[in-house]
UniProtKB/TrEMBL annotation:
Residues 83-191 form the ExoP galactose-binding-like domain. Residues 258-422 form the SGNH hydrolase-type esterase domain. This is 1,4-beta-D-glucan glucohydrolase. One of its GO terms (molecular function) is phosphatidylcholine lysophospholipase activity. It comes from the Bacteria.
Length: 440
């Protein structure tokens, strides 16, 4: 799976979580080898339809100005370019959709002529979505930031960077022949934007010219320590890391919790439940919202476990690898493997417990939940390899038919107090066995 871009003349980019803005193109029926230019010198091809979406609204881009309600995204179609301005944009889409099959020749690239006018507070990505089996996003935030103020740039992305690597029949399994680029209809080419910024677009086309960007596989991303570098995390992530380092030095710690926003949520949505059951236990909550496996690895390599000697360490991580990048289960498991190895090296006397990634999405048909489920199967084997406990409480969150209630996870991802109570019922057993009994 190929999930992040490296511009050939720049240092590797950092992948990011994106608020979607996707640009979609519609072609006449019939399979094609290489489509004509979708946009050329700002002019949209006659057989191309451009539309702007968010989770509620839909607008077809016209000859002049098109905007979503509240001007969260505005597209000005003027002579020579498309000017795209956005603000407070978390999930808006400017879609280019092809209803025909696309059979590209070898070494085909997607070429964009783009001017990143103002992108320091923005997300930027490119996607090629098609018929369920090749939904991928190439995160390009740092590429855009590196080219702010440099005018028009020609960006050529190999289609192999955008080709999906998950089978429609077997979600979560890798395709063994990623070079097979026969894309079934509908195919969508997308620019993805979020946060606040401005981007200008002059042309979009497929080409056989040499690519200007290479790709990084999800396995490498998931296992290479890196700070979380999102436009929405820049103001607090490092600060929280430094605060947790100081907290670890100030207090005796019996229990460390490693994770993402679901773990961090014990400090907010789950705070009352925590105080009721575990308020007397010296705990260091090392959950950071938005973290993927590589971000937790970075924090561990930068001292978050160095000043403590806990009796119990619980770990749950990986749902953001799925949600942000649709990492393969194999990639996520390799990231968790590195985490457990590092934790065992730093805390050989601690009891380590790995939790299955919690369910997400409305039901078992949700692709992201399926990816997590496949990951959990492999995490169980990983825990056995390390000789640590693996706990899966996911059935406690869902109904008999697999439905996840908004009464437990209002956004179908993050628990509320009722959801944290379910987790607490499991954690109480661990606390009694590994902390309070030893204290007694």
């Amino acid at each position: 799976m190929l999930l992040a871009g490296v511009y050939t003349k720049e240092k590797p980019t950092m992948p990011i979580r994106i608020a979607w803005a996707v640009l979609s193109v519609v072609f006449a029926s019939g399979a094609i080898a290489t489509p004509a230019a979708l946009v050329s010198n700002g002019a949209i091809a006659d057989n191309v339809s451009v539309s702007l979406h968010d989770t509620i609204n839909h607008r077809k881009v016209g000859a002049q100005t098109t905007a979503l309600p509240g001007d969260t995204m505005v597209v000005n179609h003027s002579a020579g370019l498309l000017d795209i301005a956005f603000k407070d944009s978390w999930s808006s889409q400017l879609l280019f959709s092809l209803p025909t099959a696309f059979i590209p020749q070898a070494q085909t690239s997607l070429e964009l002529t783009v001017n990143p006018v103002s992108m320091d507070k923005a997300a930027f990505g490119v996607s090629l979505n098609c018929a369920g089996h090749c939904n991928r996003t190439l995160r390009l935030r740092e590429w855009a930031m590196a080219h702010i103020g440099q005018g028009w740039q020609t960006l050529r992305i190999p289609l192999t960077c955008l080709q999906g690597a998950r089978s429609a029949n077997h979600p979560g399994e890798e395709v063994n022949e990623p070079a097979n680029l026969s894309l079934q209809a509908p195919v969508q080419v997308g620019l993805q934007l979020g946060g606040e910024g401005q981007l200008q677009l002059k042309s979009v086309k497929f080409t056989h010219q040499p690519a200007t960007l290479n790709c990084v596989e999800d396995r490498q991303l998931a296992t290479t320590p890196a700070p979380l570098n999102e436009y929405w995390s820049a103001s607090w992530w490092i600060q929280r890391h430094e605060q947790k380092l100081a907290e670890a030095h100030r207090h005796k710690v019996d229990w460390v919790m490693l994770g993402d926003s679901i773990t961090q949520g014990w400090e907010s949505q789950g705070k009352q439940v925590w105080q009721q059951h575990f308020g007397k236990i010296n705990t260091l909550n090392l959950g950071f919202g938005g973290d993927r496996t590589e971000n937790l690895l970075w924090r561990l390599e930068h001292g978050e476990l160095d000043a403590v000697k806990p009796k119990l360490i619980t770990i749950m991580i990986g749902t953001n690898n799925t949600g942000h990048r649709q990492d393969s289960p194999q990639a996520i498991v390799e990231g968790v493997n590195r985490i457990i190895s590092l934790v065992k090296d730093k805390q050989p006397a601690a009891t380590i417990v790995l939790y299955a990634i919690f369910p997400r999405g409305a039901d078992d048909q949700d692709e992201l939940r399926q990816n997590n489920q496949h990951t959990n199967q492999q995490l169980a084997a990983l825990a056995e390899k390390f000789g640590i406990r693996f706990i899966d409480i996911n059935n406690a969150f869902v109904s008999a038919n697999g439905t996840l209630s908004t009464d437990i996870m209002p956004d179908l991802l993050h628990p509320n107090a009722a959801g944290y109570q379910i987790w607490a019922d499991s954690l109480k057993t661990l606390a009694a066995q590994y902390i309070t009994e030893q204290q007694g």
